[in-house]
Specification:
The complex is a heterodimer of chains A (about 160) and B (about 220).
Chain A (H helix, E strand, L loop, with lengths): L4 H12 L2 H17 L10 H26 L5 H11 L6 H10 L3 H12 L4 H8 L3 H21 L7
Helix pairs in contact in A: 1-2, 1-3, 2-3, 3-7, 6-8, 7-8
Chain B lengths: L3 H15 L7 H51 L9 E9 L8 E9 L5 E10 L5 E9 L3 E9 L6 E8 L4 E10 L2 E10 L23 E5 L5
Antiparallel strand pairs in B: 1-2, 2-3, 3-4, 5-6, 6-7, 7-8, 8-9
Classes of the chains: A mainly alpha (about 160), B alpha+beta (about 220).
Chain lengths: ~160, ~220
């Protein structure tokens, strides 16, 4: 937990976009990891396994949340806007703009951006963690960059080509 | 305004910076450990219970298999097992039909529910796997069996077996069992000659020739050989 705690928490936040829920999810991740240690396959890297548990757990939570919100005729834009309002004061700085832009990407693009740029995983590792094929990971990464560029251009952070 | 390449270079730092306040605190760690302890405490007795359930089920299963096995063995391979109402007197492997495997003849004292006793001989045949099946049963008069006697049958395959009993006084009852055309054949008779007490070694007594007053043919030998 000391080694991977922060990383797991941040990855959870990148999915859930809610600090408290990310904290809750990160704790659940470690609980799951410890309880399923006997099932851990030795040939796999521990961090790949831990991050995969995190990704799956966060996806589950998002699915449940979407289902719940759908029942009340809402979508998750409210979460984004709440995050936006929460962090808008800090978003004046350029890095905050970039961070906000990444956070506003759809989940599948946000996922690859975080894993690639923050965690410095390669395509193979991202594929192992997310369960998506390598080609799909590459495509998503490419599209994520394009979308990010579009967003940052619109925000005036990046000069238009 | 920056170019996108610069942004991508700056992206890791930007993301890290955006998340720098998110720390997996000691409190969260303790919370996980506490939940793990709870889970372990909860799972401990369950596992124990589960273990005992499995152990008991296994013992019951093994018991059933054992009983079934013993019963099967008793039924198929070991008829000479006594029970409260049947007491085996003697068992003899004999070649009745002139073919392997050997048949088995055994004699029994049967105690009826009213405490009266009777005598019975049973002929068994074996299949290729050695499992026994009853071919015929032969109630006998008298109070005690005499030892079974094997007679080589002249001009035929296989042997004859003489099952003899006595009333303890002067009478000897006998049945000669043989095998003809795939069937057990019984030649019952009675022999009255001299005091039974003198028959210390009946295997040496020649009961043949005897007067055969009738012949009983039993059902076809239906055991797979």
């Amino acid at each position: 937990m000391r080694r991977y705690g922060d990383q797991v928490l941040r990855l959870a936040y990148s999915y859930l976009k809610d600090v408290e829920e990310a904290k809750d999810a990160a704790q659940e991740v470690f609980l799951k990891v410890f309880l399923s240690l006997p099932k851990f396959r030795q040939e796999e890297m521990p961090y790949t396994w831990i991050y995969r548990v995190t990704v799956n757990l966060c996806r589950d939570r998002l699915r449940k949340k979407k289902h719940f919100l759908w029942q009340f005729l809402e979508d998750d834009s409210g979460l984004v806007s709440s995050l936006n309002t929460e962090d808008q004061a800090l978003a004046k700085l350029e890095e905050k703009e970039i961070f906000m832009a990444v956070m506003s990407l759809p989940e599948k693009y946000r996922e690859v951006i975080f894993l690639y740029y923050l965690y410095q995983f390669n395509i193979n590792q991202i594929s192992a963690i997310t369960g998506a094929g390598k080609a799909l990971v590459k495509t998503r990464l490419h599209r994520a960059r394009k979308k990010l560029k579009k967003l940052l251009t619109a925000n005036g952070v990046v000069e238009s080509a | 305004m920056r170019k996108m390449d610069d942004i991508f270079e700056k992206l890791p730092h930007a993301l890290e910076d955006g998340l720098k306040d998110l720390k997996f605190t000691e409190e969260m760690r303790q919370n996980v450990l506490s939940q793990l302890n709870k889970a372990a405490t909860k799972a401990g007795p369950q596992k124990k219970k589960h273990f005992w359930q499995v152990a008991v089920a296994l013992i019951v299963l093994l018991g059933c298999i054992g009983v079934a096995g013993l019963w099967s063995t008793y039924r198929n391979l070991a008829p000479p097992v006594t029970s409260p109402n049947f007491t085996e007197i003697e068992a003899l492997d004999i070649d009745l039909d002139g073919k392997e495997p050997l048949e088995l003849v055994n004699t029994w004292r049967v105690r009826e529910p009213d405490r009266t006793e009777s005598l019975m001989a049973i002929v068994w045949t074996r299949n290729a796997r050695g499992q026994l099946s009853v071919v015929s049963t032969h109630p006998m008069e008298g109070q005690e069996f005499l030892p079974l006697v094997v007679l080589p049958a002249p001009r035929r395959q296989g042997n004859l077996v003489v099952i003899a009993s006595t009333d303890g006084e002067k009478q000897i009852f006998y049945s000669i069992l043989g095998y003809e055309n795939g069937r057990v054949v019984e030649y019952p008779g009675k022999y009255i000659e001299y005091p039974v007490k003198k028959m210390r070694n009946p295997r040496e007594i020649n009961l043949v020739p005897v007067i055969i007053d009738h012949k009983i043919i039993y059902a076809n030998w239906e055991v797979e050989k």
